[in-house]
Design brief:
Length: 314
């Protein structure tokens, strides 16, 4: 109940006629954690979009070696303090190869966020469509889709992801990871949307639309979909950090994006061998991953409290 108090206070103080989205924006502006999360999310999104430009400003490409930045007599350790941080290499270099860590981090953000956002889009579209269809039509449609949700959720998804990624060889790894992650992620949001659709289909305005002769497609898109949009947006923001973590986990296990294409999970996996001699190589990509996941999680929690208060109590 405590999570509902700020929203209730804002609703009481809001001008008459304020829409739920206006109340949501007003409440989001009041939360310091949300403001910080939005700044962090925006920075990493801009980093991902502008990765080629940022790496060009740094003067290095993510695959370019700089043997002069590592000491061959010390097992390829970066020359200089903090992993070789200098005016030439803003975040230091990768041990042994001397590749610029800043260039690899920004390009890793592009790969990691691209996979996470694309997989989330698949999950939201498929899950919302399946949930609305199951909740509105009911009967056999609901039974088939619900059993499909149960079947998909019963699989040990991580094991199947590893198996599928290991079997597929000569394919685009980014497309494959997006499809595989999206395949196992849609039932969760489908269940949420199904419950909302079951409630909305008995509302007076839906009955009125049905009596007036509106077809199923018009009712689903004009009446049901807007009613479930709040929870969908809230849970979408909560899904994204899970997708980022899943991509990082698969890359960490060696079945994700393959070198030389950088990703945060892959960089963390490679840094394990050097964490005692070059801890910055481990700290930098791990910090980026941690901050991104934390920012999306805080933002998603706030949106869920505001847009889906009943769901936040369960």
């Amino acid at each position: 109940m405590t999570s509902l108090i700020p929203s209730a206070a804002v609703a009481a103080a809001a001008p008459a006629g304020s829409s739920p989205w206006q109340l949501a924006r007003r409440e989001l502006r009041r939360r310091t954690s949300v403001k910080i999360s939005l700044v962090v999310v925006a920075l990493f999104a801009l980093m991902a979009v502008g990765a080629p430009l940022l790496s060009a400003l740094g003067g290095w490409s993510p695959e370019q070696f700089d043997k002069s930045a590592v000491d061959p007599y010390l097992g390829g350790q970066p020359i200089g303090p903090l992993g070789g941080i200098s005016a030439d290499h803003w975040l230091g270099v990768e041990p042994v190869t001397g590749r610029d860590l800043f260039a690899r981090v920004v390009h890793g953000a592009q790969v990691s966020l691209l996979i996470a956002f694309a997989a989330t889009a698949i999950v939201v579209i498929v899950g919302t469509a399946a949930g609305i269809a199951a909740g509105y039509f009911g009967g056999r449609t609901d039974a088939v889709l619900s059993r499909l949700m149960d079947l998909t959720m019963s699989f040990p998804s991580l094991i199947f992801m590893i198996a599928m990624m290991s079997v597929a060889k000569d394919v685009n790894r980014i497309l494959l990871m997006t499809a595989v992650i999206g395949l196992f992620g849609w039932p969760g949001i489908a269940r949420v949307v199904r419950g909302q659709a079951l409630s909305l289909k008995h509302r007076e305005y839906v009955d009125a639309a049905r009596v007036s002769g509106s077809g199923a497609w018009r009712i689903l898109t004009r009446d049901i979909l807007p009613g479930v949009s709040g929870p969908v947006i809230a849970y979408t923001t909560l899904i994204i950090p899970g997708m980022i973590a899943t991509e990082a986990a698969l890359s960490y296990l060696g079945v994700g994006v393959r070198p030389p294409t950088p990703s945060w999970g892959q960089m963390i996996a490679e840094s394990v061998a050097f964490y005692d001699t070059d801890p910055m190589y481990f700290v930098i990509p791990s910090t980026c991953l941690f901050l991104t996941v934390l920012a999306f999680t805080l933002l998603g929690d706030a949106l869920r409290d505001i847009l889906d208060p009943r769901g936040s109590r369960t």
